[in-house]
Amino acid sequence: MPGILGARVTHARRIGRQPDGGTVQGSSHDDVRRHNLSVVLRLVHRSGAASRSQLTRVTGLNRSTIAALVAELVDRGLVVEREPSSTNQVGRPSPIVSVSEQVVALAVNPEIDAVTIGIVGLDGQVHRRVRYPTDQSPSVLEAVNIAAAVIDGMRGELEARFKVVGIGVAVPGLVRAHDGLVRHAPHLGWIDEPLAEMLEAATGYPVLAANDASLGAMAERFFGAGKGITDLIYLNGGASGIGGGMIVGGAPAGGIAGYAGEFGHTRVSDSERVDSAGIRGTLEAEVTRRELLEVLGLAGADADELEQALRASTSPEVRAEVNRQIDHLAVALAGAINILNPQVVVLGGFLAALLAVDADRLRSAVAKHSLDAAFGTVRLSAAELGSNLLMIGAAELAFEGLLDDPAGLPAGVPAGTPAESP
């Protein structure tokens, strides 16, 4: 998957070289027009608005080719052009190209205590996020029905304001990449559930699904704390446990079947506590959102609310539980740092709240278990996208087909328009 192109890009003839070592190849030949459209759309999607002259410089394509590509993307409703602000530059200023605010994807994240649905723009803006609480872990049918009902309630706004590309689903479990089958989501109790197929039938929109933490890693890599980073570890703490994702050498590292990154099952203690897989003394067994909520006396909270509650608390019991969890988290992080030697470790969900409460304790504990050389080059960071992270990650999954082939969308036709309303 191509990475972000920054402001400073070295390039050879017709090649834009990325900070992560990859390349974006451009050509003015008609037979690769689709590829060039993809190059330009990815640039403005992941790097933000750019002038035509910047696009010309980065891709190595000539000005007339860029003008034609931008004109086609405008015609398809995927980008817009505007005149730049006043400048002292001599000559006619180059128009600014940015993604259209009308192009959106729907994002869905089922969890053990809620189903969250969002509308996310191609520019990464979350236009709407609806958290629908549940009294117990929803079955796959219940999650689909909740998501479909909320989306149906948004239908008027979607049809009036937006072009919907499709739906991306962030699942707290193992998901088969090619068809969105949930192989195992232990906390939800889902085994071999055709989630993507069911949600597509219920809504009429095309649906893709993937592991939530892997999508979180992708979102942070492109839009958050990992911008410009080639080696990143992301750990997400949610209601259903702890998962992770990895970017290695600029590319997602998913393993042979897409199941890599299960940091929650890393052994961190000799405790008799067991995780969802029945393994003793793991990170997921020792570090839990549930215990933080219990010690705070809260029935539920999203990641931002939990962080606020932990920061505000003066209870010794709360502090003791935070310290215990931080110390166990440090063991897992140190092991990952020693093995993978990342540039940054990004923590999301309630793990970000632990970092926020006592960053010094976590850094000191990680350093104690890490090799000096590996720890000396790593940065610990909270996920910058906050509670919107999985919405943005799931939407990015839905956008991928459009980014790969913008020409696949007929000019002037709203993307992903349902065949019929459920």
TrEMBL record:
- Protein origin, superkingdom: Bacteria
InterPro entries (alphabetical): ATPase_NBD, HTH_MarR-typ, ROK, WH-like_DNA-bd_sf, WH_DNA-bd_sf
Pfam families with a match to the protein in the record? MarR_2, ROK
Residue spans making up a coiled coil are: none
Q: Where is the HTH marR-type domain?
A: 40-85
List the PANTHER family.
BIFUNCTIONAL UDP-N-ACETYLGLUCOSAMINE 2-EPIMERASE_N-ACETYLMANNOSAMINE KINASE (PTHR18964:SF149), ROK (REPRESSOR, ORF, KINASE) FAMILY (PTHR18964)
Protein family per UniProt? Belongs to the ROK (NagC/XylR) family.
**UniProt protein name:** Transcriptional regulator
Q: What is the lineage of its organism?
A: Bacteria, Bacillati, Actinomycetota, Actinomycetes, Micrococcales
